[in-house]
Amino acid sequence: MAKKECRLMLKKLNSILAVLIIIFAVYGFVTNNTNETIHFMMLLLSLSALLKEIESFQKTTN
């Protein structure tokens, strides 16, 4: 049961990160503040990739 809850939590975190990436992309486009926005979006994308790796690792160990 805990593995299913963990997968669900990872999927929720991934979707939250996707929404944050979209918000900051729009923010960077509107404000023309590309340098800070690009760095923050790179951080969010790397966190999203890390979550996907954890999720795929859990699938292989199950």
Structure explained in plain terms:
The protein has two helices and no strands. It is elongated and about 45 Å long. It is mainly α and about 60 residues long. It has one domain. It has helices at about 1-30, 35-60.
Briefly summarize what is shown.
Keywords: Membrane, Transmembrane, Transmembrane helix. By secondary structure, this protein is mainly α.
User: CA-to-CA gap between the ends?
Assistant: 12 Å
Global shape: elongated
Helix/strand class = mainly alpha
The biggest sheet amounts to: none
Strand proportion, as a percent range, falls in: under 5%
> What value does the average pLDDT take?
80
Model regions low in confidence, pLDDT < 50 over at least 5 residues: none
How many DSSP H or I helices?
A: 2
Helix content range: over 70%
Number of domains: 1
Q: How many beta-strand segments?
A: 0
Q: If you compute it from the alpha carbons, what radius of gyration comes out, rounded to the nearest whole angstrom?
A: 14 Å
- Order of secondary-structure elements: HH
